[in-house]
Structures are given as structure tokens and as C-alpha cells.
């Protein structure tokens, strides 16, 4: 497995998003199977594991903590606090974004994870009404105390990144990025490069769509976000077929799968981007981690960009759509 740098951290070029083992994608594997799959990813060289207090809520951190326990010191473990009350937390929304609230959330996460430090602690959303500098100061104190090694923000704006980074340097920004969601390409990803911050791409497979294994006749159940996000509305799945057709041509020419091409594209484009696909089977882990070995030349990357530029994307994934399913409102 190849490695790359995310801020001051060195991680595998493809990490593992662990949310789906407890949350967000419908039927769950049994606990032992989830642990086996996370350990398989580690055995294959994956060293970045991502969770959050909101996943489950809370139970995903316990699960991930159990899975990585035998090799805790060999992986970069990232978790997140939500900037408002989650589940039955005995705190108000306002208190959550204070030093007291963040410290309490971190102590609870450390207990659930069964570890005494988090490598990168993210602010899961950065409310526009908040002052990024205040959170950065708290994070700086937590770094000095050794409770976290670095910190990050998720879905933040260039201004929020600059203001926070000036107080306590950020290690990672984690935001949505894939061939179907490129809103952070214009400013945030180049800004992270300029400031030496790693960019972690969540939903890099566009919730599986880019693998080409999902079609308009499929239905989704329970807490599966694909019931709510418009990217998976039947008419949009049909309208987005040209993207899958292009991926088919390009991946056949490259001798890899569509999923691998979707990940290899962002790896080739940016030296400081690491995707964290969700994957809950041996085959998907092997396929997605295998993308790290798909090396695209400058010409191949240019050919992909030319194809993508011709395609209009229909539908997206928004917090508002997901909140309609009853998930915690992040800001
Ligand atoms: N910061 C944030 O606000 C935020 C938001 C969302 C997610 N995240 C993090 O980012 C991680 C990844 O997000 P995501 O789960 O939405 O990523 P994703 O990889 O785009 O989507 C995961 C879905 O795609 C499927 N999939 C992945 N690779 C596949 C392949 N090769 N072939 C077929 N299907 C494939 C998965 O299937 P199976 O799981 O069924 O195998 C799952 O249903 C999460 O686990 C979480 O840690 C962060």
C-alpha cells in the first residue's frame, strides 16, 4: 500500500470510512464481521480509520475502537464531535460548542474508542454563526495536553479554514469529494495544498454510485441515506448514466474497475487528498484499496478530465436531505 501525507500525518493512500458499519447504509453486518473487515483492511495496509460520535450515534466509535485495539498505535484514528447535542447527551446545543462541551465530547469519545488519544479530532460541521478561532484555541489546548495529536474541520469554508488555521494549524479537512461532487475543487482543496493541510474525501464513491453496481430499479431501506439523497432518485440515476458510460470506457482502457478509477482520479490529481470509501465486504475492500496501485499518467488524467467536463451531474447529497430522515441537525 502506498502512503501519502495528510498534514503532519502519514497514512495509506486510501483510508477506511467506518460509518457504514453502524450507520447510514441500511442493514448492518454482525459485529464480529465488521471487526474482521476493519482488521482485513489494516492487514492490507490501510492505516486511516474514520468514525464520529454521531455515527450510531456513539456505537460506531465503540466498534471501531474494538477493531483497531490490537494495532491502535500503528493507525491514524480520526473521530468528530458534532457542534450540537447528539442523542441523549446532557448538554444544550449552545454548550456543545464551548471548551467544556468539546472536552466532554472528547472524553466520551476516548472512553468509547478505548484509547487515550485521538490522532485527528474534527469539528463535524462549522456553524456559520460560530467563531472558528474559539474552537481552534480549545483544540490547541487539547493538543498540548496530548489528548489529540491534530485537528480538523468538515465541510468548512475557505474563510473558516484560514481563520482557524491561523490560531492552531489544521491537519485535515474532511469534506465531500468525488467525480459527482466537485464543489471544493475550486477553492478549498487548493487552499489546503497551499497551507499544508491534508484533504480527506468523504463519500468518494458518491455513496456507491461510481462503482456502477447500483441501478434505477434498486430500493434502499431503514437508515440508508440513499432513500433521501437526490443523487439516488430514480430519474437522476437514469440521467447520470453518461457518467457511468464514460467510466466504463476509461476503466476498460486502464484495466481497472470503475470504482478504482474514481479513486485513482483524485489520487492522481492531488498529492494531499486521501479518499475514505465505506466498504463492508472483502471484495470491496480489495477493490477500493487496490485503487492505490492504479497509477494514472498526465495524459490519462487529462483524458478523464475532458470526459468529465462534458457530463452534467444530476442530484447530490445534502445535509438537509439527510436530516429529513431524522438524523441530527448539524448546524
Ligand atoms: N464528515 C462528514 O460529514 C461525513 C459524511 C459522510 C461520510 N463520512 C465519512 O466518510 C466515509 C465514507 O463515506 P461514504 O460511506 O458515504 O462513502 P462511499 O464509499 O462514497 O459510499 C459508501 C457506499 O458505497 C458502497 N461502495 C463503496 N465501494 C464500493 C465498491 N467498490 N463497489 C460497490 N459499492 C461500493 C458501499 O457499500 P457497502 O458498504 O455496502 O460495502 C456503501 O454502500 C464514512 O464511512 C464516514 O467515515 C463523513
What is the helix/strand order? EEEHEHEHHEHEHEHEHHHEHHH
The SS-based structural class is alpha/beta
Please tell me what the overall shape is. globular
Q: Mean pLDDT across all residues, rounded?
A: 95
Q: Roughly how much helix do the residues carry, as a percent range?
A: 25-40%
Architecture, CATH level 2? Alpha-Beta Barrel
- Biggest β-sheet: count, sense, barrel? 8 strands, parallel
Question: In the CATH hierarchy, what is the class?
Answer: Alpha Beta
Strand content: 5-15%
pLDDT < 50 stretches: none
CATH topology: TIM Barrel
Number of domains: 1
* Rounded radius of gyration (Å): 19 Å
Total helix count? 13
Query: What small molecules does the structure contain?
Result: NADP nicotinamide-adenine-dinucleotide phosphate
Q: Record the strand order, biggest sheet.
A: 3-4-5-6-7-8-9-10
DSSP strand count: 10
* N-end to C-end Cα span: 37 Å
Can you give keywords for this protein?
331 residues; alpha/beta; TIM Barrel; two-stranded antiparallel sheet; 14% strand; binds NADP nicotinamide-adenine-dinucleotide phosphate
Describe the fold and architecture:
With 331 residues, the chain is of the alpha/beta class. The chain has a single domain, classed as Alpha-Beta Barrel (TIM Barrel), CATH 3.20.20. It is built from 13 helices and ten strands. The strands form two sheets. The protein has an eight-stranded parallel beta sheet. Strands 1-2 form a two-stranded antiparallel ribbon. Helix 1 (31-43) packs across helix 2 (59-68) and helix 5 crosses helix 6 (158-167). The longest helix has 15 residues, at 99-113. The two termini are 37 Å apart. The relative contact order is 0.15. It binds NADP nicotinamide-adenine-dinucleotide phosphate. The site of NADP nicotinamide-adenine-dinucleotide phosphate has 28 residues, from helix 11.
Amino acid at each position: 500500500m502506498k502512503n501519502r501525507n495528510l498534514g503532519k500525518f502519514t497514512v495509506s493512500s486510501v483510508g477506511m470510512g467506518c460509518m457504514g458499519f453502524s450507520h447510514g447504509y441500511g442493514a448492518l453486518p454482525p459485529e464480529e464481521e465488521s471487526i474482521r473487515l476493519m482488521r482485513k483492511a489494516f492487514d492490507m495496509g490501510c492505516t486511516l480509520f474514520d468514525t464520529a460520535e454521531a455515527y450510531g450515534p456513539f456505537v460506531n466509535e465503540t466498534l471501531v475502537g474494538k477493531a483497531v485495539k490490537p494495532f491502535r498505535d500503528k493507525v491514524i484514528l480520526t473521530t468528530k464531535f458534532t457542534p450540537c447535542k447528539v442523542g441523549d447527551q446532557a448538554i444544550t446545543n449552545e454548550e456543545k460548542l464551548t471548551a467544556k462541551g468539546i472536552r466532554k465530547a472528547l472524553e466520551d469519545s476516548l472512553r468509547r474508542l478505548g484509547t487515550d488519544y485521538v490522532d485527528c479530532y474534527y469539528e463535524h460541521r462549522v456553524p456559520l454563526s460560530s467563531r472558528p478561532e474559539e474552537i481552534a484555541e480549545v483544540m490547541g489546548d487539547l493538543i498540548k495536553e496530548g489528548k489529540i495529536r491534530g485537528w480538523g474541520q468538515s465541510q468548512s469554508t475557505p474563510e473558516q479554514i484560514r481563520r482557524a488555521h491561523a490560531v492552531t494549524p489544521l491537519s485535515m479537512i474532511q469534506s465531500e469529494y468525488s467525480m459527482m461532487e466537485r464543489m471544493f475543487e475550486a477553492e478549498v482543496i487548493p487552499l489546503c495544498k497551499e497551507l499544508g493541510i491534508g484533504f480527506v474525501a468523504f463519500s468518494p464513491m458518491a455513496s456507491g454510485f461510481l462503482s456502477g453496481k447500483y441501478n434505477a430499479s434498486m430500493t434502499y431501506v431503514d437508515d440508508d441515506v440513499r432513500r433521501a439523497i437526490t443523487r439516488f432518485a430514480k430519474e437522476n440515476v437514469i440521467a447520470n448514466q453518461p457518467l457511468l458510460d464514460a467510466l466504463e470506457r476509461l476503466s476498460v482502457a486502464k484495466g481497472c474497475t470503475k470504482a478504482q478509477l474514481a479513486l485513482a482520479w483524485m489520487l492522481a490529481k492531488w498529492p494531499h487528498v486521501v479518499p475514505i470509501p465505506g466498504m463492508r465486504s472483502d471484495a470491496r475492500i480489495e477493490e477500493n484499496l487496490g485503487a492505490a496501485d492504479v497509477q494514472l499518467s498526465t495524459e490519462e488524467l487529462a483524458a478523464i478530465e475532458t470526459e468529465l467536463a462534458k457530463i452534467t451531474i444530476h442530484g447530490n447529497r445534502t445535509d438537509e436531505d439527510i436530516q429529513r430522515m431524522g438524523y441530527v441537525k448539524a448546524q
